Amino acid sequence: MSSYVTKKTPGDTSWFVHDRFGMFIHWGLYSLPARHEWVKSYEKIAEEKYEKYFEYFDPDMYDPKDWARQAKAAGMKYAILTTKHHEGFCLFDSKYTDYKATNTKAGRDLVKEFVEAFRSEGIRIGFYYSLIDWHHPEFPIDVIHPRRDDEDAYEQSKNRDIKKYAEYMRNQVEELLTNYGKIDILWFDYSYSQQHPEQKDWMKGKGKDDWESEKLIELVRKLQPHIIINNRTEIDQDLWTPEQYQPIEWLRHNETGELVVWEACQTFSGSWGYHRDETTWKSPEILIGMLINTVSLGGNLLMNVGPTSRGSFDYRAENALKVYADWMKYNSRSIYGCTMAEPEFTAPNGCRLTQSADGKRLYIHLMEYPFKHLVLKGFAGKVDYAQFLHDGSEILFTEEGLDLFGKNQDMLVLNLPPVKPNVVIPVIELFLK
Ligand code: GLC
Question: What's the topology of domain 14-337?
Answer without folding.
Answer: TIM Barrel (3.20.20)
